[in-house]
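Example with several molecule types.
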Amino acid sequence: MDLLERFAAGDLDAFEEVFRKHQKDVYAWTVRIVRDPAIAEDLTVETFWRIYRSRTTFRAGGNFCAWARRIATNAALDHLRASKRRIEVELSDDLAGPAHVDPAVRRETRDRIKKAFDELPAKYRLVATLALVEEEPYETIAEATGISAGLVKMRVFRAVRILRKKLNSLVIQPGAER
Amino acid sequence: MNEENEKPLRQLIQQGIAPMKDTELQRDLWPQMLKRLQHEQQHEPVRVPWFDWVLAAISGLILVLFPSVIPALLYHL
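Resulting structure tokens for the full complex:
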């Protein structure tokens, strides 16, 4: 009986082994979505709790990493939906722009980008974060979210459209583009 | 969908919001996981199998339809 079979059968030692083997991957994926290490740790535990609960549905010989990533994405999405607190996006210190631009203006620009991003609906924020900020391929996002690559592309497009409306004045400023 | 038109906005977002640099897990989360498992097991509601409910319902029905069996049942208990 291999490790995943023992895990699916409810063996706690096997679950511990699976947990230790995959916790880093699940955390790394989750923290890129929620962008907060403490929340990502909690969500990693939540993800493995969901994995443990639904262990009997895992097909022997299936791709555990892909299955775990999908569950992690759903847990992160639930968090984004439920959380009243806005996610803290890590803002780049070197927001490109002409050197002569006032730092206060740059700060304001970053704040506007952050605010616009935070105001996106959760399902758009999820794909937009992964596609636009983390530059994950659409196929990877599709696999993790359980939707088609076409739908991911559509959601990114809609997110971009919403952001465009909110950030229109920034986009048309030649200085802000570079 | 014209991706070329969206390029300036994409660039602006990428310049304004940095990708996560540190995605390395700093500590082992197994102790936390173990606590969660113990907590969930302690607070797990008692689950009664469906056939137990069926058995209870049938017994109740018999007692309602044939109340005369109650003294016999009590005698045997």
